[in-house]
Every structure is written in C-alpha cells, then in structure tokens.
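Students often ask why we bother encoding 3D structure as a string. The short answer is that it lets us treat folding as translation between two languages. Here is a chain of 220 residues written in the first language.
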Amino acid sequence: MRPLPLPLTLTARLLPVAILAVVGWAWTPDQDSSQGGHTDASSGAGATPSASATAVAVKTYRTAPAPCDSISDKMIKSLVPGAKTAGKELASTDKSVRRTCSWNALKGYDYRWLDVTFEIKDNDAAARTAYKQRTAEKSGGGAVPGLGDTAYSVVNLTTEDKQQTREGEVMVRVSNALVVVTYNGSDFETKKAPSTDEINKGAIKAAKDAVAALEDGQKN
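And here it is in the second language, the structure alphabet:
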C-alpha cells in the first residue's frame, strides 16, 4: 500500500503528531427570546439608571467559560470518533475574554476536527458589531433559527492534491458573547469529504451544546 498524501490546509493541524494513515492508526493530540440589548423601560420619575448600572446590565457574560467542558462526551464521541473527550484548550492571551478547545482524531482513514471558541465582548453592541462583520465575510451561509439571539451557519468545500475537505462554521451571538464552532472532515482513503448535511448538522449540534453551557454556567 502506498502512503496517502495530506492536503496542505490540514498539514499545520497534523504536524504535532505522526500520521500513518497507511496502517489506519488513529491519533489524538494532547492539545486546543433575546437577552441582549434589553433596556429598562421604567418611566417613573427619577428612574434614569446611572452609566455604571447600564454598563453592568448589558454585560450579561463577564468571563469565557471552560470550553473543553462545553461539549458533552456523547457529542464528542459522535462527531470526532477516536478523540479524547477531554479535548485540549489552546493558549490564550486573556482567558477571561477568549477561550478555545479542540478535539481531533484520525480513525482508520476518517479525519475529524472540532473547535469551540467563546469570546466575551464589553457589551451587546460590541458583540453585534463583531457578529455582523464576521458573518458578512462568510458568504453562502444562512441563519440558524432558535439558537442564541442570532446564529449563522456556512459550509465550504476545499480540494488540494485531489483530497477534499469540508468545513462548517456556526457563529452564535448570545447577549455580549460570541460562540464560534468549526467542524471539518476528510476521508484519506476515498479522498472524498463528508456530506454538507453531515458537517452542517454536526456543527449546529455542537453549537447548541456550547450555547447551553454558556447560558447555564456563566450568567451573572
């Protein structure tokens, strides 16, 4: 049997370990409605809130949650077969405002990668601005109803050296927090990528887990 070449876009992610797909070794790196914008409508005399009180009111989430605890073990086993369910948190310059966890594994010839990132903005307006800017850069996707205050999903296919990789991204805004899920996959035997439906649904399922973890554990 001959070695299986990897696409360049996956090389950086696969460098930390030796990939021996020819013998089907699996590997796992040791690595990584709306709440927002509500305004106190009280109209009584002297009811004008102070600037500091208003700032506190719109900053529903003050710190990023532990990302590696945000996705259930059952979900990880389903989306990233062969990965350690504990995941690996990536380095961050400020964990109070941005945290990311990664899970990835090669099982046989099937490769899957999942990232979950939490970002905490100063207020709802800042989160809305960041959300609009990022979704505008990701054309071809669509809204995901019923998830957070607003959510967007997009899936893209890339091909390098005849190897396909399909990647889905879901971005969710919940008050002043952004939740970003990236999920991709490849088959190194057939050189085909998983279907759009599989990747999109997988990313949305992970995003729902992540948003639930944010809402359950991080509200003031």
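Translate back mentally: The helical segments are 8-14, 51-58, 73-79, 124-137, 196-217. Keep this in mind for the problem set.
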